[in-house]
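User: Sorry, folds how?
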Amino acid sequence: MKKWDAFRVHLWYSGIGSFSGALIWTAMMIYQVQVVGLQPVQLVLVGTTMELTILLFEIPTGIVADVYSRRLSTIIGVALLGVAYLVEVSVPTFAALIVGNIVWGIGYTFTSGAYQAWLVDEVGQERAGNAIIRGDQVARIVGLLGIGGSVLLGSLFLALPILVGGVIYLLTAGFLILVMPETGFQPTPAPDRNTWQKMGDTFRAGLRVIRGRPTLISILAVGIFFGLFSEAWDRLWQAHLIRTFDIERAFGIPTIWIFGALDVFMIFISLTGLEIMRRRLDTNNPARLTQVVFILTVIMVIGIIGYGLSPTLAVALALWLIFTIARDLISPLLDTWTNQHIDSNVRATVLSMRSQIDAVGQTVGGPPLGLVGQSSVRLAFVAAGLILSPAAWLLNRVRRQERHALEA
């Protein structure tokens, strides 16, 4: 079969991947809570297992993409993602979820970096930006269909959308074997390949760079606190609504319908918020950008603590909305803010350190907060908010320093 144009492959892959992902993840946490019956600490440990696997396998699997083939690495990764989801629903047990998340983490590392590198190699640097934007647009639209499909299939049986999504991933791997080209790949020279030694060198180089630079220290510290708190929120927010407030009984419709509606609602709210922010916020003004990132972080701290302490379902949903909007808006701003405070000659080093620190933070922070949640899910959210709060303090300190610099 003749290989397709890389741009066309990218649009199809973006759409299929988004559809499958929405199909699976609209139902996944509900499946883990209602069908498998995981407790808070188990929910968090499942996520921690995934993060730890990614941390351990990111470098070895990167070598496959650098040395052999980015196309091959992507296809292996997509196939492993499909296998992982099938393992997770093969038997409704904690052990199956752990094994599935290990396989998922390995599969993710095969696609991480490799797919983007393949795309740039094939379409060229000048077309890559447009291809990525177009792919993201396709993904968002098709993702809505995936949410709807998950709601319909999940109403029959909660494992069904995960099962179907896993099968689609496997079929996608076969599809990529048939149509995915690779004409621009050049093996990376041995000295430039990702290795464990290089990762260690990155940390040592980064430590040398940040020595004597308080702003860089603050950037990395902010990353630590964002990593430490996030695993508890990602794994427990749905369980809180299901078990604490019995959301299905409150609304009188299946849980998956409720969360599907929340997902769709948040997509439109986030898109609207991002567009308003794009028009109103001058991201080239470092002082203003730092102020907005600080405000959004404070909103997140208040939102997650309030979510844990909410006396009623209505209050909990309102604070969930506030927290989620702030988190969606802060993600691109935090990346922009970080880049503005890093000199170009050390940017790659510091960004690499930030990524690794975030992964370590999620791995380290998840289990303790899961243990707290085992005795009280409410207390886990309060603890997560307190853990995040030093990030707001650090951002406020940078904000004051920038203000004083402008006044000087």
Q: What stands out?
A: The radius of gyration is 22 Å. Residues 7 and 131 are 7 Å apart (CA to CA).
